[in-house]
Amino acid sequence: MRIIVVDDAVAAEDSLALALATAPAGPGGRPHQVMGVRSPRELRQILAVDRGFELAMVDMDFGPGSPETGLVALRLLDAVNIPCVVWCADIDENRGLLLLAAFHYFEPWALASKTGPIADVTGLVTAMEQGLRPGRGLAERYRPARGAGPPLLERLVGNATHLDIWRALTVFSSRPDVAARAKVAESTVDRFLQDRYAPMREAEHRLVGASPDLEPTGDERNRARIAPLHAFAVRHANFFRDREVEQIVRGRYRRGSGPAAGTAAR
Amino acid sequence: MEWGSGKPRRRRPDRRPPDDTWSDHNADVVFETAIHTTHTLWRWGCWVRLALYGAAAVPAVAWSPATQLPRIVLMLFPGVLGLALAFGHSFSQKLPLLGRIPAAGRLVGHLRSVREKAAVDASGLLEGLGILLATWLFVGPVPLPGLPVSARTAGVVLCIAYNWEAVLQAVIDAGWYSVTAAPSHGMRVFRRFIPPAHCLILVACLWPWTAPAAEVPAQAVIALCLSPLLYYAVWAMFAAMLRAAVHSAVAQHRLARLNSASAVHSMLKNSVSVLARYAEQDDPPPDLGHLRSLSREVLVGIEETRQAIMKVDSDSQFGSLREVWLRLEPLIEYAWRGPHQECELTGDVDLPLTSTDYQRARSLLSDLMMNALKARARRVRIEFRIQDGARPQLCLLRVSDDGERFPPGAARNPLTSLKVQDILLGRYGGGIDVEDDGRWKHIAARWGCPPGIVRPLPHPGAESHPGPRQRPDPGRRDDVPQARSAPHRDGKRV
To answer: What are the φ and ψ backbone dihedral angles of A139, each rounded to 5 degrees?
Structure first.
């Protein structure tokens, strides 16, 4: 299989290449070939000349050298129908919302952790080659739940105006400042605080297992809500400020055809 | 702190109630901002007061008979002294000059000691006395007789303007926000009553006690007596600015911490977790050479992260091979065995590299250098070419040393510590080659780029050292102005 690794550290592609070189060859008898690029910008350059990859391992964060996140890489690979596996260093903490967005908008095939043994990743590659579906794994936490109602990410982020309010919340923590920065009326901010509190708690529960709080009661509701929402916004500031999230929310990107699953016939 | 109306005040140092560190940090920001603002305001204020004083003297001198001049000069003199001291207080760089005047040493010491404290000081007292006497030239118990009404009014207005400016400095002095010598509760309460107290003092001063004083129009007197109430407005504006300064400082601080934390996370976590995972694997067991290489990479990465966080200009361009070398050298210093010469760096060592090339060069250079040093090398040469002569799509990193020779037959030994790198570089058309020419051992690593990726090339003529492969081109001349990408180390050109 030809695999491309999109990660800002050369060590990631090297460790995968080393593990696959020493592992037994795939069912077709061909040895695996692993290549790597450091950022979505380089990914564009390589996809312009060579699209013959059968699997992509994509990191979500590319360090200070690249303002684009893994969402851009997933979009580029989705456009040319290359199946993706998200390969992240630290799954919880502040990458959580990016992962939620990745699994909501792009449907990657699986999620692998860089802190686990490399054998897990080579196992994924072998399973992919044989055309098997991945089992319930690390990705389950982030996949949108199949069921009634709009998915968590849409309830959390909302539309473009709500994204502006989230961005204001990453800087300010008082209602008039947030309203001024987001250029909306304070009543819009009030509605936002009411609507977004529960999804925010649910997201925290999903991402880090924090127990969902009881809704604050009484007349001080909105004032009691803004502090935890502000803290949440600051913690996930890199998500709310991401350009790609903004593009997606403004609807400038439409997903292509359904999930790209691996088959042995490739 | 200076007083315009000359009221003495006891300074009672009071302890602030114990507070948490966050409020302390805010208080420091407030105090520092107040100091910076008032420092500038006091300098301007000195010039403003000097101008007002000079302007106030004009009506007194111009419209008075010569017999009154000695009295005018006498009454104006303390104000001049006070102003001079105020200049000395505000322009503290000039204080040492003042110290050269004999007997002024104690005065200089006093001025230095009362800076930025809510306390009375000599210049404030003198200025207060001075302006009181100056005002009494126009109104009060001993006004100058015979001045025209407009001149008297102008003089009074200018004097009260001076007074207003001076007392404003008392109202918004940085000493009120001091962290180390905070004013007591009583003083802070008193601050609120300064404007009305000042109003009353002005009323007492401008009251038409004598006939010449009564010539000043009543509307002017009322307006002047109410003018201290403007202090509340200025104070409110000042306080709003200080709150905004705290908010900005807190936001910037938090942002800087977030950026540092995410830089540490993204730059280090990868290399550390790769090392940890490689060390944990059981099948196949980790290769010791590769393990050491990964741990050296972590050490270099820590230094790089520290420099990346400290860098003010965030240009994301990666460094050159020379920078890799500079970061690596202190870490492997210990491995030198015995006396040695400095390493030589030749080739495109100052060319900015892509992220991939930089990281590969970093790990390869540390491996090759460790090999050379463990072989007890005395001299080491490092050569880097972005385009290898025979195969220009590959770049070349060659480390040559004069240490122990390889055992016979080991040149292509698959058991050397570089076999892992050979496998990895082979994916891009490169590999590791070993040569031994009798005097020197040469280990050369070559690697290419994935398709579609372009490497930045040096500009023609920007080589830093003409290596043995370079042939000087007699036909080319360097009179065409070209952008230089790297400074010449030895001034030579091809």
So the answer is: -75, -15
Distance (Å, whole) CA B143 – CA B414: 108
Task: Identify the DSSP state of A140.
Answer: G
Element (H, E) at B280: helix B230-280
Cα–Cα distances (Å) from B239 to A266, B4, B117, B235, B328, in that order, read 70, 22, 18, 6, 52
* Strands B380-385, B344-347: pairing kind: parallel
Q: Which of A68, A12, A18 is nearest to A43 (CA)?
A: A68
Residue (of B89, B62, B58) closest to B173 by Cα position? B89
Q: Which two tokens stand for residue B392?
A: 């220009």
Interface test with A, best of B248, B266, B305, B363 (most A CBs within 10 A): B266
ipTM field: 0.82
Q: What number is the average pLDDT over the span B276-300?
A: 84
Per-residue three-class SS string for B104-144: CHHHHHHHHHCCCCCCCCHHHHHHHHHHHHHHCCCCCCCCC
For residue B453, the chain A residues in CB contact (below 8 A) are: 37, 42, 45-46
End-to-end CA distance of chain B: 68
Cβ–Cβ of A36/B450 closer than 8 Å? yes
Q: Is the pLDDT of residue B117 over 80?
A: no
Residues of chain A with Cβ-Cβ distance to B258 below 8 Å are: 234, 237
Q: How far is CA B27 from CA B23, B177, B180, B181, B243, in A?
A: 6, 8, 10, 12, 10
Read off the pLDDT of each residue in A4-8 and give the average, rounded to a whole number. 92
pTM: 0.67
Say what the pLDDT of residue B234 is.
93
Rounded to whole angstroms, the Cα distance separating B32 from B46 reads 21
By residue count, chain A amounts to 266
Going through B207-286 in order, the beta strands assigned E by DSSP cover none
Q: Which of A118-122, A133-137, B88-92, B475-479 has the lowest mean pLDDT?
A: B475-479
**Are the C-beta atoms of A60 and A139 separated by less than 8 Å?**
no
How many whole angstroms separate alpha carbon A153 and alpha carbon A239? 12
More confident residue, B109 or B43: B43
pLDDT given for residue A256 in this prediction: 42
B131 pLDDT tier (thresholds 50, 70, 90): confident
The total number of residues written for chain B in this structure: 494
Average pLDDT, chain A: 80
Instruction: Give me the sign of the Cα torsion angle B271, B277, B282, B283.
Output: negative
Q: Are A111 and A138 in contact (CB under 8 A)?
A: yes
CA gap A86, A106 in Å, rounded: 11
CA separation for the pair B71, B66 (Å, rounded) = 10
CA dist., res. B274 & res. B406, Å (int): 31
DSSP A189-208: HHHHHHHHHHHHHHHHHHHH
With CB atoms and an 8 Å threshold, state whether A15 touches B277. Answer: yes
Return the residue matching tokens 């140092």: B13
Higher pLDDT, B361 or B482: B361
pLDDT at B460 over 80: no
In B, which residues are within 8 Å of A38 by CB distance? Answer: 354-356
| Of residues A98, A68, A96, A81, the one with CA closest to residue A6 | A68
Please tell me the distance from the alpha carbon of residue A161 to that of residue A141, in angstroms, as a whole number: 27
Q: From CA B131, how far away is CA B137, in angstroms rounded?
A: 10
Q: SS3 of B386, please?
A: coil
